[in-house]
Amino acid sequence: MRSSRWLFAGIWICSAAGLMGQTSREAYRQDYDAWREVHGNLERDAGSGGATLIPQVDRAAARVAAFGTNRAAYAKAAAQTAAQQRQILQAGTTRLSPDLAPPALAALVTGELQTVTKTITRFAEDRDRGIQQLRQSLERERDALAALNEAIQARQKAVTTTTAAGTALEQVRIRAAEMIGSETSALSQNSVQLEKETAAWAAYYEGLAKAIQLANAPPPPRVEVTTVAPRNDNGPGIPRARYVGAWTYPVSNGVFHGAQPEFVDLVVHDTNGHADGTLFARFKLSGTATDPLVRFDFQGDFAAAPLQRFPLMSSEGTAGTIELIPGPAFNLLEVNFVADPRQGKINVGNFILVKK
Amino acid sequence: MCSASLAQTPDLTALEQTAHKRHAEWESQAKSLEERLARILPCDTRSSAAIAEVRALSDARLAALNDYMRAASAKAFAETAAARNLLSAEERRAVEASRERADAGQEQTAVDIQSDGLLQSINQRSSLQEPQKLLEQIAALIRQRTAESERQADVAEKTIPILRDLVAKFEARDAALQNESAAFEAERTRWSGYYSARQSRAQTECSITQIGAPGPGPARQPAKSPAKASGKAKQ
């Protein structure tokens, strides 16, 4: 029993690790269908079935764990992608400086045009050949100034139109940013909710198996398996050593989603159930980010749950949240952080660290 | 790709500062040009040089302005491309949210069926009460998620028209920018035409007066002094 459970768990841990960056809706829906197929009519059968139902319970538990984890990973990836794509709404749009061709410029040309026109008028009646040549030259200059004046007016009109278009654009951008901003936070909460459900399903199947065993005397020897969940030990009994200590991003074959870390140093301390820690990381630049460095501190009380969530404060004073999730092995820790968006800064990250 | 374009955009602030500087350099010389020319004899080489100098400053000003406008336009167009990508992504997300809503409903139905089955089995085995409680908790979580999926799907549907409007506004801004660039190019050509005409007038003034020409002396005595006449008219 124990070995079969670990086999199932092991299979999907490997699958989940491989799929971490490429989970698709189709993939997790296939997991769902597979789960429902394996599950069958367990609840009805549980009323009369014997211990032979236990392997089916275990298979269903493994399937729902795979489904839940893949779906949560997909939801998390979707939320992070959405957050990155929506960052363009946070920054003001490009607007041309309107004072690079000021009105004084038009005044200068108008003044010249008036002067040249007056001079032409003054020489209008003069029959002197030289004066006539000069007048013709002045007329060409007047025509050039008139055309220039017209061009300046046309450009000023175009500037006014661009300014109005820019203002209208900014109004809609601000409206869209306000509407979508709150939804970005809601999206990031979806994976948390799904992880809760996954944990609840694991507990349910565990309870169902127990109930079936209790009802069948003599109960077969049963080895408790704390979880079939992939990446943590399920429940409040997780030793703090799974979080506390110095952690680093592996030099090769690192697992991440979103921004790719180049290095990560995480230190977590425990003082009588109170956690405090520091994360310092450098990422490969992509998207709109211009600063590869991320540094923040966090603290809070350890919760009686596998997923530890603490508020964080970056070195620039940006607030956010960090989640620490025990990995599939004792020396692995998944980190997931989200901070308030700031231009040029990386504000989301998801990767697995190795204990130093 | 759009992000990369944004990242490669030259420093707009620096280009704007350069454009301001070139404008100031040209303006100070252009404003005083006619006054300076009025004090120089028509054939004095300083006359032609003064016009050429202001023309060069004008060209430099317009070139700096052109650099700034090109860079700003490139950045603006990249923003528009990013907005279009966002709209496409949000349209896909709206479809996804709708599917999520349907999925959640399906899962809720499945759990309800499980719950019914378990309730019937409890009559035969009381040990199943504990899993029944856990299943109720799961059903509550799924109901909560179903409600949230409903809400998110509704918001996603409402967001799409706003983003479509946003993309339309981006495109209108870009069209205005293109018009402004075209108008600027036309003006640039006119400035060039004006300085050519001004230089031509200076040559005419010289050819009909020959005053101030280098060499053995004036070729002829002008009947009148049109250069001074036109200069006075401008005062």
Oligomer: heterodimer
Number of strands of chain A: 9
Number of strands of chain B: 0
Mean pLDDT of chain B: 87
Largest interface, C-beta closer than 8 angstroms, per-chain residues:
A-B, 98 and 103 residues
Unreliable segments of chain A (pLDDT under 50, ≥5 consecutive)? 1-22, 219-236
Distance separating the two termini of chain B? 58 Å
Structural class of chain A: alpha+beta
Number of continuous helical runs of chain B: 5
Looking at the structure, what is the overall shape of chain B? rod-shaped
What portion of the residues of chain B fall into strands of 2 or more residues? under 5%
Report the order of strands and helices of chain B.
HHHHH
Q: What topology, given as strand order, has the largest sheet of chain A?
A: 1-3-4-5-6-7-8-9
- N- and C-termini, Cα separation of chain A: 34 Å
Low-confidence stretches of chain B: 1-7, 216-229, 231-235
So what's the overall shape of chain A?
A: elongated
Domains of chain B, number: 1
Largest sheet of chain B: none
Q: Give the strand content of chain A.
A: 15-25%
